[in-house]
Amino acid sequence: MPLITKISQQKRDSERYNIFIDEQYAFSVHESVLVKFELTKGMTLDDWETDEIVYADQIEKAFNRALHFLSFRMRSEMEVKKKLLEKDYGEAIVLEAIVKLKRLGFLNDEAFSEALVRTEKNSSLKGPRAIQQSLYKKGIPKELQTQALEEYTMEDQMDNALKLAEKTIRSNSQQPPAQVKQKIQNTLARKGFSFEQIKQVLNSVTIERDEDEWTEITQNFGEKAWRRYQSKYSGADLRQRVKQSMYQKGIPLAQIDLFIEQKRNEEDGD
Question: Which intervals hold domain RecX second three-helical (predicted)?
Fold first, then answer.
């Protein structure tokens, strides 16, 4: 019967031990496996016992690999399983490792979901739909998604939506109000807020431009439109194209007429 003739600690990894059977290297095991099976020099091993020890060591390897993966940040059960399978651990071994991780509190989809909701609502200002999509992609079950999102109150959601709207307004100070509102709508939709929430935000924000600001906006948009169309059109056709383009951007007709009149005077002057 095979006999353990030597057990030596590895130099590169002090937590692993080399097992020699009948004077020949057979396999290595983690310290916890060594203790679990009470492996000692002079111990005899049947083939099935060896297979059981090697299997247990594979579980320990997968467990430690998962711990390393989890050391960077919290992960969902699906993320850990996918990572271990990518490292070529068998599915049975992966499932055993996950059971151990959950039993010891290193893996908890409920806690992970709650943490993800807090992070995305506070740091990214995401809406509930976007956060739910994030939970779905992490493999979180539907009931846990719903449970975790309960802490994201309607009041918090509207606060975040308004913060995003205000940020959009500040970063688009040289844009016509109609354009800014369109950007707010696009931003909130992309961030996962509902149509009703977007509507409430748009009704609550006020975007005003004084006379000097309107003059600058009109000039900027007008000149861009003029340069874009003057290679294809001229005279009344050119002025009409520019006027339509400016109107679509939300510039008041009175401002547009002033710009068009300016351009007509420049043409007459030439």
Answer: 108-149
Distance separating alpha carbons of residues 156 and 161, to the nearest angstrom: 9
Q: Domain total for the chain?
A: 4
Q: Residue 231 gets which letter from DSSP?
A: T
* Co-location of 225 and 260 in the same domain: yes
User: pTM here?
Assistant: 0.80
d(Cα 136, Cα 145) in Å, to the nearest integer? Answer: 8
Residue tagged 């000692």 (tokens): 40
Instruction: Identify the pLDDT of residue 32.
Output: 93
Domain with 240 in it: 211-269
Inter-residue contact 34 to 60 (CB < 8 Å): no
Task: Spell out, as residue ranges, where the chain has pLDDT lower than 50.
Answer: none
Do residue 21 and residue 99 come from a single domain? Answer: yes
Per-residue pLDDT at 266: 79
CA–CA distance, 258 with 253 (Å, rounded to integer): 9
165 near 180, Cβ under 8 Å?
no
Q: How far apart are CA 143 and CA 122, in angstroms?
A: 22
Q: Give residue 78's pLDDT.
A: 97
- 118 and 181 share one domain: no
Distance, CA of 174 to CA of 267 (rounded, Å): 27
